[in-house]
Design brief:
66% helix, Hypothetical protein af1432, mainly alpha, globular
Length: 199
Amino acid sequence: MDVNATLFFAWPLTGADGLRDELLAAYGDESRGYHDRVHLAEVCERLDELALGGASYDVEPVWLAAWFHDAVYDGQPGAEERSAAWAEAALAEVGVAAPVVAEVARLVRLTETHRPADQDLNGCALCDADLAVLASEPERYASYVAAVRAEYAHLSDAEFRAGRAAVMDDLLAKPTLFHTSYGRERWEAAARRNLAAER
């Protein structure tokens, strides 16, 4: 995957290249492990895949939310809220319509729990694209887990294991990990296998 080509193609706003570059710089921060440009590109590719697989969603807010969902990521609580606040301020500044800005911010906040309502087509698509890495082949899954661990280098191994176990238990407690028909059909079984093996 050519990450830069994917991301330049995926940027949904015309005439706001400065904002795109700010976001690319944030995702390119060397302190990031998993939540980097590769993750952003993979989320964008999964949104494309979902659309091709029949998932319906509003393209502009969902793609903008994909770009902003991990705009702030520092291993500290409240990153989704800070990312949403950045989206609200920055998108208003470049002239994005207020209803779209509000939807983007809502979607970014939703990625804290990944629990959209069944009728929330935008939320279902974004959450599925964000969690699709869980269904990766074993080698990619292992590199994902290692990259997440690197982002929490400030925690001891015991602290990280406890926190990671809580995240996995929360995910496995969901009736389904994925909320679109495509995600459930293509990703659910593999993701549950990977999580169970890690647990």
